Amino acid sequence: MPDTPITQEQLYDPIINHVRPAPLILRPEDTLADALEKARALPSTQIILYCYVVDESDRLVGIVPIRRLLTNPAESRVTDVMITEVVAIPSWATVLVAAEYFVNRRFLAFPVVEGDGRLVGLVDVNSFNEDVLALAKQSFDGIFQLIGIHATSALTPWSSYKDRFPWLLSNVGGGLLCAFILSRYEETLEAAVVLALFIPVVLALAESVSIQSVSLTLQNLQSGKVQWRLLFRSIAHEAVTALMLGLSCGAVIGLAAWAWQRSLLVAAILTAAIAASMLTACLLGVVLPNSLRGLKADPKIAAGPIVLALTDVATLVFYFTVAAMLL
After folding, report:
1. pTM (2 decimals)?
2. Is 149 helix (H, G, I), strand (E, B) or coil?
3. Confidence band (pLDDT; 50, 70, 90) for 154?
4. How many CB atoms are located within 10 Å of the residue 314 CB?
C-alpha cells in the first residue's frame, strides 16, 4: 500500500507508477502446501488479498483467493484451484481508469499487467482516496447516462425498465420521424436507388461524431456552471473541427461511391451531406448539454438518445435535401 493515497491531482498519472509488488506469487505446479509455506515466510504485517499465479515467463495465468488456499487439501495443485478468468488492469491505464475498475467490479485489489500479460504488480482499493473513487464512480455512471440509463439504479427489473424505457422513446420517436422523412423523398429514391445503399454509413458517421462531442462536453461540464464566453469559443472550435472531419469523411465515402457506382453526382451528394450532417451533429453535441445546464437542468439527460435522435433526423433531411437539389 502506498504511504499516502492517490489524490485527484494524480488522476491522469499512469497507474503503473503506483503499483506495488504482489506479496505472494505462485506457479501452477505448486502445491497448496508450498503456497502456505511461502505465505508463512512473509512478514506478519503483510496483508494478502489474493495469490497471483504466473507461468515461466511471468505472465499472469490465474489467481487464488486466500479462502481457496485454506479450504482445499494441502496436496492439491495450484492449477486445480486457481481462477483462470482474471480481470487485470492494463499498465497503460490512468489512475482514473484504474479506479473505475474498483467502482465497477468491487474487488479489493487488481493485478496490473503489461500488454503481453506479464504481471508487474498490484493496486488495491486503499491506494485511492475517497475523492478519486467518487470521481471514478461519476465517470463510470456517466458512461451509462450517455446512453440514457443510470448504472446504479437497476436494482430490480421494474426499476431498470423505468430507467431505460423513457429514453428509448426518444429513439422510437426519432425513428418514426426518420421514416416519415424517407416517405417524403420517395421520388428522389426512385430516381437514384443507389442513395439508399449509403444511408447506414451516413447515419453512423453523424451519430459517432455527435457522441464524441457530447462526451467531451459533459466532461467539461462536470465541475462548474456554463461560462458563456468559453461556450462560444467551444462552439467555434468544434465547428471548425467538425467541418474538417465532415469534409474528410465525406471525401473518403464520396471517392468510394464514385469507384463503386461511377457516379460523380452520387459522390457529390454524399460528400456535401456528410459534411453538413457531421457539422450539425457536433454542434448539437455541444449546444444542447450547455443549454440545459444554463436552464438549471441536468445536461446528462441530453447525452445519448435525444442528441442521437436529433442527429438522425437532421442527417436525413440534409441527405435528401441535397439529393433533391442536385438530381
Report:
1. 0.47
2. coil
3. very low
4. 19
What are the chain's domains? 8-145 (3.10.580.10), 164-326 (1.10.357.20)
d(CA 209, CA 216): 11
Give the type of residue at 55: D
Give the distance from CA 64 to its chain's centroid: 30
Classified as helix, coil or strand, 58 is coil
- Give the burial string for 281-295 (b: 16+ CB within 10 Å, else e): bbbbbbbbbbebbee
Where do the DSSP E strands lie in the chain? 25-26, 50-54, 60-65, 89-90, 109-113, 119-124
Residue 9: count other Cβ atoms within 10 Å of its Cβ.
9
Maximum distance among all Cα pairs of the chain, rounded to whole angstroms? 82
pLDDT of residue 134: 73
pLDDT tens per residue across span 66-110 = 888 888 999 999 999 999 888 888 888 888 778 877 777 767 888
Return phi, psi of residue 60, to 5°: -70, 125
Any residues with CB less than 8 A from the CB of 30 and at least 6 apart, and which? 77, 78
Confidence at 219, pLDDT banded by 50, 70, 90: low
Tell me the helix, strand and coil percentages in the chain, rounded to 5.
65, 10, 25
